Amino acid sequence: MDLVELTKEIILALVQNKDSVSVKEFETDEENTILIQVMIDEEDMGRVIGKGGKIANSIRTLVQASSYLKDNKKVKINIESF
User: Fold this and answer.
1) pLDDT of residue 24
2) 40 in Cβ contact with 11 (< 8 Å)
């Protein structure tokens, strides 16, 4: 599964406003690094970030583990609301 698709599936399982979810991949200046930008509704931020950032860190860990199995690239995930 593509890293962007994996991230999107995880995010969609957490949010209530599924229509507002946008997950895109961007190039970075760093070699072997992928940046995944996640845009969600402001009301869903608490569900995705979690207390103390625990859920966001778990998402990053899952996607990073998938990357090591496939591409062996470092993954950065930015979660923002609009």
Assistant:
1) 97
2) yes
Domains in the chain, start-ordered, CATH in brackets? 3-81 (3.30.300.20)
Query: Quick check: helix, strand or coil at residue 81?
Result: strand
**Token representation of residue 49:** 């970030």
- Please choose, from the candidates 80, 25, 33, 35, the residue with its C-alpha nearest in 3D space to the C-alpha of residue 56: 80
Quote the pTM value: 0.91
Exposed, middle or buried, 8 (CB in 10 Å: 0-12/13-18/19+)?
A: middle
